[in-house]
Amino acid sequence: MSLLVNHPARRWLRGRDCVAGCCSSRSGVGNGWAMTKMEVRRPAMADPSRSRTALLIVNGLGVVAAAAFAALGVRRPDYVVPAEKVTPLAEFWTASSAVRTWALTGPLMVALTRPDSGSRSGLLLAAGLVQCGDAALGVRHRNPGMTVAPAIMGAVHLVSARVLRH
Which one, of 137, 52, 152, lies nearest residue 100 by Cα? Predict the structure, then answer.
């Protein structure tokens, strides 16, 4: 990145070093003075497009995993609640949780795969809040499996919503 030095400590050079080419004393144009051009180096960082791609992939994998676990909960409610507590209400709870998850899965996957999706951040925010809610339910039921993974993916979705906006 090039930057014209424009501060009190600037250095001035004569004639042929003019960055605009208009101040050369040889051409007889201008006053013969010009500012020098400095190269400003940015610190070495990961390629932003690779970081964005990695975030999109991690979010996509998390969404697919959440949808798969929701399907597993519908198919086998004893995976979510202890077998002795599987009641029609527990089956309803796992089914409603799955419907909520699946309702976000489709639109979010579409938003993650489209480069100029304006709804990506909003959907990631919604998915992050849903995952955080699932983690809170896991804490309430003292179930580490329902707590750790949703908490991690909730944080990933929320951070990604902030990083990937625009």
Answer: 137
Check if the beta carbon of residue 133 is closer than 8 Å to that of residue 97: no
pLDDT digits (tens, 9 = 90+) for 7-36: 444 444 444 444 555 544 444 555 555 545
Cβ-contact 143, 90 below 8 angstroms: no
In the chain, where the domains are located? 2-39, 48-163
- Going by pLDDT thresholds of 50, 70 and 90, the confidence category of residue 116 is confident
Contacts of 165 (CB under 8 A, 6+ apart): 120, 121
pTM for this prediction: 0.65
The pLDDT of residue 2 is above 60: no
34 φ, ψ to 5°? Answer: -150, 160
Buried b / exposed e along 123-143 (16+ C-beta atoms within 10 A): bbbbbbebbbebbebbeeeee
- For the record, the structure tokens of 21 come out as 């080419």
